[in-house]
Amino acid sequence: MANVFKNKLTANVGTSPSTVYTTPAATTSTVIGVSVANVNTNNISVSVRVTDNSTSTTAHIVKDVLITPGGSFVAVGGEQKIVLEANDTISVLSSIATSADVIVSVLEIS
């Protein structure tokens, strides 16, 4: 089994759900961090969601959290971890177009 730490960066997330990370096939991922930064000059509301590929179920990690201009929000970090199976995804959307940058840190086990 190979264990690999990875970061996935996505810039300019907007009002349509943007898939920021997908677990590769034949892999399990432990999400160790999800940070969202407001790169807009206005307040934004951000939602972070996980979709379980095997059941097509989507659930929110956080829904409509307010981030002030220049601020950031840590949706996953510290003691909290999330396990994703093959082809599960994390998506983010914002209340304003091209207003959020996202960093997802994972440990992939294949």
Provide an overview of this structure.
The protein is mainly β and 110 residues long. The protein has one domain: Jelly Rolls. Helix content is 0%, strand content 65%. It has no helices and nine strands. The strands form two sheets. Strands 1, 3, 6, 7 and 9 form a five-stranded antiparallel β-sheet that branches. The chain has a four-stranded antiparallel β-sheet with strand order 2-8-4-5, with no helix packed on it. A hairpin with a 4-residue loop joins strand 4 and strand 5. It starts with a strand and ends with a strand. The mean pLDDT is 97.
Structural key phrases:
110 residues, mainly beta, Jelly Rolls, 9 strands, 0% helix
Q: In a nutshell, what does this entry contain?
A:
The chain has 110 residues and is mostly beta strands. The protein has a single domain, classed as Jelly Rolls (Sandwich).
The structure class reads mainly beta
Question: DSSP strand (E) fraction?
Answer: over 45%
What is the assembly state of the chains in this entry? single chain
3D shape: globular
Say what the CATH topology is: Jelly Rolls
Task: Characterize the main sheet.
Answer: 5 strands, antiparallel
What's the N-to-C terminus distance? 5 Å
Helix-residue proportion:
under 10%
Write the CATH architecture name. Answer: Sandwich
- Provide the succession of SSEs: EEEEEEEEE
CATH top level is Mainly Beta
Q: Rounded to an integer, what's the Rg over CA atoms?
A: 14 Å
